[in-house]
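If you are new to this repository, start here. Below is one unmodified record pulled from the training split, so you can see the exact layout before writing a loader.
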Amino acid sequence: MGLQLTNKLEVSGVSKGYQEREVLQRVDLEVKGREFLSILGPSGCGKSTLLRILIGLLEPDTGTVRKDGVDITHAAPADRGMGIVFQNYALFENMSVSRNVEYALRFHKVPKAEARERARQMLEAVGLEDHLEKLPGALSGGQQQRVAIARTLVLGPDVVLLDEPMSALDVDTRLSMRTELKRLQETFGTTMIYVTHDQEEAFAMSDRIMVMNGGVICQLDTPENIVRAPANEYVQTFVLDNLQAKLDSLRRFTNGKR
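And here is the target side for that same chain:
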């Protein structure tokens, strides 16, 4: 499945402030269907605030959010057909893996037997069929992340938002989860918007990258075009120089293990 030409989301003139500080400044954004878009920037740049506005956990001070051409700016989160995966996974520690996923469906009034079967199928899709009755505490960080993703995908959202979901994982697990996320996106045909402060992660996974700083978009383009023509000195320094430094460090580490 490739990108769709039509816009899945349209953000127009969205601003948000807290205590006289403007966190988002009239942001305009279009996201294509089935696109993997990374929002890349440092802490405090507004990327997580934008994500919460998209899902409906925050209302913007100004501007509109449209999905498939319909204004959803003031719609409840449950009415948006979108899902979100948080950094801390937010799993119920006293429920089994299967029950965690079933709970999302039961909350939406899906009958018990159907919820159990759909949960089983989704957990099988993310490779956790052997862990259905375990508690989250018995799983690795990467496996817990898969449960959180399964719980989101089982509701059938066509847009999935991910808020720094890999920041607590070790390097090897993060690499395998990158591959898993891309596979799941391809399988389910979802649009994914991925918030991160990790340059390498954004470049490895994205169709396009939106670089943010100080509540504004500095550049929104393909990884190739950002490398070829950074929009300003900030993009050059925060994105490309840091990316090169990480690649150089990885190269030294790899050579040192030989």
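Two things worth knowing about this chain: DSSP finds eight helices and ten strands in the chain. The beta strands are 7-18, 21-32, 36-40, 62-67, 70-71, 82-85, 159-163, 191-196, 208-213, 216-221.
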